[in-house]
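Aim 2 progress. For Transcriptional regulator, the working sequence is reproduced below.
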Amino acid sequence: MYDVSGLPGLETAAGLLPPDPDCFFLIRRPPQPAFCDAVLSFTGYAERTSGHFRQIQAAPLAVPLIISFSSFFTIALGRTPKQDERFACFTSGLYAGPAVIDSFGASACIQVDFTPIGARRFFGVPMHELAARMVPLDDILGPLAWHLRERLGAEPDWNRRLGIVESIVYRRLLEASAPDRKTAIALRRIATSHGSASMADIAAELDCSRKHLVEMFHRNVGIAPKTYARMVRFHRVRQLAMSSGRAMADIALECGFSDQAHMSRDFMEFSGETPSRWKRRVS
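Predicted structure tokens for this construct:
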């Protein structure tokens, strides 16, 4: 639910957004260059017509901060949300599966998408405490969460709303401790290899044991390094499928899967649907 393209699970592929552009408002702003290692984007989102909208986010690699100043969302990880699973201002750590987000035509919010390292610094808690959970912002930020919601609701201009959130995010990041160097190196190695880097090789490069690498990821990322690498590889598969039009079997081999069946199992685990169904839905 925290793709770099927007709100929890807001993807730009056909079928995930309300079909008529007049149904919603979307504004996106990149972070200042000095904060690109911590923040991926700032996004404003609002619905302009009544209805029931469902968004599905597959194993996102970003950690979202959502500040809603209108209606709530109903959200669940790995399944359809129940009516009482309502969230307005919240975050959620990394989750190796699909998140399902329902809204009902009156939602308006600001979303900040953090890198895992940025989230660790901004929230100031071990990331395993946020992983695979929906966490109300009050539990982490205290009165600041309520203050933000009220201030954004009272401000009518979307650019000023984004500016309010930006200033608070940047101030907290500047006050936070520096990112863990070894975790940053490991994340970069996984990203540049599209998830194919060996955990043993990364541990050797960092001069640590694999056990220490796992503990480090648990604390600073929220999930195991191997799981994170598999998620990166899954997103690489989707990127190649969207941009190249190549056969899924060829993409599976390029991405390091033993065969297409192996890739399909990962695809189902992370997205909740088969590659063929996903391709039909987004084409």
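The longest strand covers residues 39-47. This observation will guide construct design in the next reporting period.
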